[in-house]
Each structure stands twice: as C-alpha cells, then as structure tokens.
Design goal:
The chain has 302 residues and is α/β, with parallel strands linked by helices. Strands 3, 4, 5, 6, 9, 10 and 11 form a seven-stranded mixed sheet that branches. The chain contains nine helices and eleven strands.
C-alpha cells in the first residue's frame, strides 16, 4: 500500500472535502483523486461517495479510516527506526578483545554507550586468531587484534604491547632472558594463542635459549599465579602484569618482544555503527594522551 496515498486518504477522510484536503496536502485536486483511485483499485471497492450533498465515506472507507491512523503511525515508526539504524543509533555491536586492550576497550565502550544507549554491545575475550575467524564469519563486528592483520580486514592501530619476563622470588637474580637457560617455564599454550606462544619461542631463540617448558596454561593470570608459587618463570604481555603477587618483572630490550595491536573490521562494509564506535575510540585515544592512530584502509579513527 502506498504510504503517501494512505496519508492522503486520512486527510480526506477527516476533511470530507477534496478541495480542502488537496490544499492541506499541497496537491492539486486531480492528483489527490488519482491517489484515492489507486487505493480504491487496490482495495477493490470505493472509499468515498460523492454527490450533491458532498463527500462521505463508503463502508470500505469507514473501515479503512478506523485503522489507517495506526497504520500510518506504525509506518512512521518503522521509517524512523530505519533512519536511526542508518545513522548507527540503534542496533547491535559485537566486539572481540584481548589482554592488550583490557583497559582501553571498557573505556571506549563506556563513552560509546553514553552516546548511543540503544545499541546493544556484547564483548568477547578472544585470542587474535579467533577474532579474525569471527570477523570473517560475521560473529564479530570489531576486533582488537595483533597486527599485521589479513588484507581483507581494515585496521586502525591503537596501541603497542611487549613481552616481559616474570620471575619467582627465588630467581630474582636473573637479569636478562639469556639467563633463562635451564629454568622451568610456564607458558600460555599454543592452542590458546599461537601468536604469543610462537613469539615466546622466537624470542628465546634470539637469546640462544632453549625453552624448558614445565607447564602450559590457558590464561595469563594462571601463569602468573604459578610463577608466584615458584613453579617457574614466564613471559607475559606487559598488560597482564600483576603487582599484587610476589613476582619479579624484567623488561626485555629486544624488538622481537614487541608487537602492535589495532581495531579491525570487515573492510568491505560501511556500517555506521562501526564508524560511530571508531569515532569514540579515536576520542578515547586522544583523551588518554595517545597519538592519533593512522588508519590502514577503511574508516579513520578520529
């Protein structure tokens, strides 16, 4: 059913005068008559009676007039919701993140939710490889992943991360990674995140250390708890550091210890919700005193 024709019908049903209704609608009388005929053809019955006494509703017209107001209201609401969705004001946003952005992402989401309270935001703590797969499978809209990202994703660099050495108190005399030879290691399993595991192995190789792995775990807090209890040393991201545990930390001065983290999304999509989130991300980076991130394709962080 034509939305404009229905609106014209409602005005005419209220006025019961073609001239006045046409004037209110800013239409000519022939144009108004054409719209009404279109509705009548669709319904299969006349909507008005016109005679020397004036214009009146037919039986079909009376029924339509009773329901048309609600129809127009629902159409108007549907149109408004579609417009708001097009502006990225309503909908859903599924976000993946990892340890490197444990502090940043919640701040961005708080900023985003205050501005777009009708967007339902869900969070998933996932390794980078899982986020990439979920982005490609449309189970995530935005991920915060280790860079570089695959070519089919647009990215916006947001922070850097580095591995640090976590030592039990009994090993506090160890100063560099080169001194780890023969010391038991507790590492995050490769099954959980192959990127961190492979980086640890490569970093040990750079210092001519053969890793002596005594335990693999699924989470960094577990690794640090085992370090604190004296099971062994570990290499963990700086952002995973726990200063409330009896652990000695050592910085690792080697480029192989560093990596970059960025927001990633499907580059082929121009989703306004994603663009609005990236704008909030850019504002949060500026507020935190971080340099403005330079985007690699896709929507820029502002």
């Amino acid at each position: 059913m034509d939305f404009r024709a229905l609106r014209s019908f409602v005005v005419l049903a209220n006025q019961l005068h073609f001239g006045r209704a046409a004037s209110l609608l800013h239409l000519s009388q022939p144009a108004l008559s054409k719209q009404i005929r279109k509705l009548e053809d669709e319904i299969g019955a006349p909507l008005f009676h016109r005679d020397t006494a004036g214009t009146s509703l037919s039986a079909a017209g009376a029924v339509l007039a009773k329901d048309a107001g609600d129809l127009l209201a629902r159409c108007g609401e549907a149109l408004l919701r579609a417009q708001r969705a097009g502006r990225g004001e309503i909908g859903t946003l599924d976000i993946g993140f990892g340890v490197a952005t444990y502090e940043l992402v919640p701040r961005v989401i708080a900023r985003f939710r205050s501005r777009y309270p009708e967007i339902h935001v869900s969070l998933r703590d996932m390794p980078s490889i899982g986020q990439v797969e979920a982005l490609r499978g449309r189970r995530l809209d935005i991920g915060f992943i280790r860079l570089p990202a695959p070519d089919d994703l647009a990215v916006c660099p947001v922070t850097t991360e580095r591995l640090i050495l976590a030592l039990p108190p009994a090993a506090k005399d160890i100063r560099t990674l080169a001194d780890l030879q023969g010391l038991p290691l507790v590492l995050l399993s490769r099954e959980r995140t192959h990127s961190v595991f492979d980086q640890v192995i490569a970093l040990c190789a750079a210092f001519n250390v053969t890793p002596y792995i005594v335990q693999e775990v699924a989470e960094f807090p577990t690794a640090l708890a085992l370090v604190a209890s004296g099971v062994g040393a570990s290499l963990v991201p700086h952002s995973a550091r726990r200063d409330d545990l009896p652990i000695v930390y050592r910085e690792i001065d080697h480029p192989a210890a560093d990596w970059s983290v960025g927001a990633a999304w499907r580059s082929a999509e121009g989703d306004r919700i994603i663009a609005n989130f990236l704008a909030c991300l850019g504002e949060e980076l500026v507020a935190a005193g971080s340099p403005t991130a330079t985007p690699i394709g896709g929507t820029p962080c502002r």
